[in-house]
Amino acid sequence: MDGFDEPLGATSNSTSTNSLFSLNKRDSYSSILDQYGEEAENEETRTECVMPDPTVLTLNCANRGRRTSVFADAPILDKTVIVLVGLPASGKSTISNHLQHYLKQTPATAHLRCKIFNAGQVRRKLSCRGRPMMLANNSSEDLFNPKNTMKKEKYAKITLEQLFGELDRDLCDVAIFDATNSTEARRAFLFHEIRSYNARLTGEFRITPMVLQVGCVNENFVKFNIHNKTFNQDYFDKPYDFAVRDFARRLTHYSSQFVAFDKLEFDRHVAEGKLVNEDTGLFWFNIVNAGLLTNVERSHFPPKCASIVKNTVSTIEAFVTGYAKIYGHQYIEQVKSFANGLSTLKASQDVSQTKRVPYSLILSEILDHDYFEQLMKTAC
């Protein structure tokens, strides 16, 4: 298989956040979402924004009321928001968990409190409410159908409100926004919200935004990742083949809308940032195929880098460039074994307690050559 020749490190069985519906026919899915969405829109969880359409991503701000670090030589930085970008089954949530661990283990950033804000977990918490995930009764209730984008957006906005709320209360320093963020419109909205946050005259903190794009173009990786998705909370009550087909359909829906974050979009937002003194606009990092694909630009920085963010930027850059060797080895070995038919159970399962299922065979039948060809055709 391509890309298995490099020495690598360890991994996690974490899965990403987006998922589908249950076989149990209960209340209408959309009614729960609409009800919560109306409530959430009426909540005042953020302080007043005094500029309706600000034009800078970062602004100079005095250190008003900022807490003192427990480390004498490590002052608390302004807040950092890492915006994940990537399709389902690309490894976003696994990589975000690894980044959180890496920041904590690196002396230069060990004092920073990092938290992951996962849109899928918010969606499951609000829609499932402790019950199995409900099956969509028709296409209008299929949350992941492209025509229902606005319904899905509500969960992302609720998650973003929670993120800003915790920044305002100084509960974290580095916030990872774990969602697909798969269109230019979604990302433009996020950057507008960050500019609005930074422009508040009453705000005590300002945000430096960073994009971490996670890609997966290796078919064996995608198969293995989808396999692991079938064991998440959404699919615990469903047959394996149903879960694979359902998730494969969702991936097709996302792929039809997905627009990768590229250099043109980066340059546009950096230009819009209009650097203010030492402050900067936007940072961008790439991890593809668990870091094995190296013929991509792994990072893009704005023209200037403020000294206050250098430690964080340098640490994340080291994480991205060394990801395959630091965290990838166990994952790659698992994919190799799975693809070769040597593993028929998820790593965490006990063979004595679980009926043996021919996972590789079922995956290969559903995610065949025709499926991946069609996936490529649906991509924007």
Automatic annotation (TrEMBL):
Residues 79-289 form the 6-phosphofructo-2-kinase domain. InterPro entries: 6Pfruct_kin, 6Phosfructo_kin, P-loop_NTPase. Signal peptide: none annotated. SUPFAM superfamilies: P-loop containing nucleoside triphosphate hydrolases (SSF52540). GO terms for biological process: fructose 2,6-bisphosphate metabolic process; fructose metabolic process. It holds the Pfam family 6PF2K. GO terms for molecular function: 6-phosphofructo-2-kinase activity; ATP binding; fructose-2,6-bisphosphate 2-phosphatase activity. The keyword Lyase does not apply. One of its GO terms (cellular component) is cytosol. Keywords: ATP-binding, Nucleotide-binding. It comes from the Eukaryota. This is LAMI_0G06810g1_1. It comes from Lachancea mirantina.
